[in-house]
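Researcher: Quick one. two chains, 505 residues in total.
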Amino acid sequence: MTRYVMVVDLRRCIGCQTCTAACKVANGTPPGVQWRRVLDLETGSYPDVRRTFVPVSCMHCGNPPCLEACPTGATFKHEDGRVGIHYDLCIGCAYCATACPYHQRFRVTRQSFAYGSEPTPEEAHKFDPARLGVSSKCTFCSDRIDLASHSGRVPGVDPEVTPACVNSCIAGALHFGDRDDPASNVSRLLEQNRHFRMHEELGTDPGVYYLYAEGDRT
Amino acid sequence: MSGAFPTRTALGRQPYWDWRAASNFMLGGSGAGVLVYAAVCGERLLGLLGAALVGGGLLCVWFEIGRPWRALNAYRHGATSWMSREATVAPLLFASALGAAWLDSPGLRWLAAALAIAYVYCQARMLNAGRGIPAWRNPRSVPLLVASGLAEGAGLGVLAGGFWGPMALPVWPMVLLTALLSARVLALWSYRRALPKMVAPGRALRELSRFGRVSGAVDVLAIAVAILATADARIAPLVTASALIAAGSGWALKYSLVIRWSYEQPFAVPVTVARGGEVAPGARPEG
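Model:
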């Protein structure tokens, strides 16, 4: 089996938001919608203060609450673990958005643009009317992953079939690959580093891992 | 854990479900309660009011969804979705309520009541499956919503009986109203006790605490009035106040639950990384 996951190295992320920008360009998301973003967490008290940058997106859960909630069957799981949405089935009830504990579902009902009332050439090119009034979220750049199955290239290794955010990361903090392949990049990283997943206690089996220290597993 | 999240990572109330979604819970629960009341008290036409309320709630939701002309797709995922199940029960409920009124059939009235209980249970489970909202995923929200819906319906039933029929304050409706109001008070108390375990944002807890004190006191007052009115016919006019409280307090509760306490699950990390790779305590916003 294949289970595509993302691995985020918190020691490397510098909060530059290049992944956020790359995602917007690659997927043409409208203003206010960020399928990928980086949280800027400030903790501690003076003088012992620290900042932590935490990239977040759809966690492509193994047990997705959004899929269970969806009344239409629009939300579905690929065999390789990715969670997708059939836009033509979705009724835009946003039930999935309330079910997601990671707040990674978005719904816009009207077309809007970054600069005034007219789209930029890029926005006009990327605009997809099927995404109006329905739920949307990170797809792990599904068009690229689907290409891998036809071309024989390896997601997470070959840039053409790797999510845009991973390709763009200037710090090497984002990694993508098959967790079920013991020789994959992500399996090695998870084997060699201590890690956690966000809100694991909710039983969602999230597909995004955060590395925070060297050493065996959590 | 210490520290505060910057504004940009602080989450607020869920932005998707507004008064139209809240109306579905308010009208749907009340309508289901009216149908149960109609069966218990043998009222022929009251069931139509219940069905109309349920239909009104669904109409409100129809105006909320992003693609209303695809609404029938909501029937496609009954295997896991409580929204699909709610949609499946609704037409059966309408048919049995209409049939009961048309044929004056006690059997159909009880069938409509059973479907009404199923409907309000589906609604309660639907909200409970909203795992991104701590106030909703509290398992005690299920008995709270069911008890409230039935109490609202009993209140509306008593009111409608006063308008429509020669009901000289019969005992059974008041006993039913009193019992359901008591159940709601207990359910709200239980819900309030369980919510902190959901790691709910502090804002939701503070708002619930304020609401709970007022709502609980008002409901207890309504119970006292209902008991006294049953025992002493001279204060029968106060029954109207008791019934109004049963409905109004329930609607306020549901509006608050769907809109006001619907703070989103905060982001949280169990550890953070300090300069030099040192592992530091995690971060969870207090809200």
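Chain A has a mean pLDDT of 93.
Researcher: Thanks, that's what I needed.
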